Please model this.
Amino acid sequence: MINQTYIDDKKIKDILTYISGMRHSEQIRMMFLCSLNGMRSINFCYLQIKDVYHPDLSVKDVICLDENKNKGKFGANYYLNTQMKKEFKEYLKYLKSKNDELNPDDYLFKSQKLGKPYNRVSISRLFANIYKKFNIHGASHLGRHLFVSKLVNSGVNICLVQRLANHRIISTTQRYFNYNPQMLSNAVESLKI
Model:
């Protein structure tokens, strides 16, 4: 299926503002940002302290996940830019406010009721409801589509985008890409005759 949804940066900021007014906004915001950083819900729903933070609690440059936390029988690496590292650093303050002593095996995102990690279906439903408020058809996987599109739109080589999205074949990455009329105009404008 080809992704037809285009969401600009302003709409993403509006969604983040909306999330800030929700219960458990810190967790939801961070999960949403993980999605926008290309992670699947299976990747971030089971994230543990040790996956994101070094033993001294500094943020890692790359989140390296084994096959138990990824789709299929393969591991995945998610590179964190400066902004995401800053977000995870801020999120650590939230985690510390909830628990005096952090255990490396603690999950980053837990249901307040059950004390267990959110499941993927709950995350998908939560994201679908958030997007619906903005008349957007999508769920947790839409963030991956936006991640791929934003990288391609920024001129990043499709082979690098494939690696960053942890896709095994490039045709999958190509299906994630979307465009808008302004991008088409810019592409034509770049031609020099």
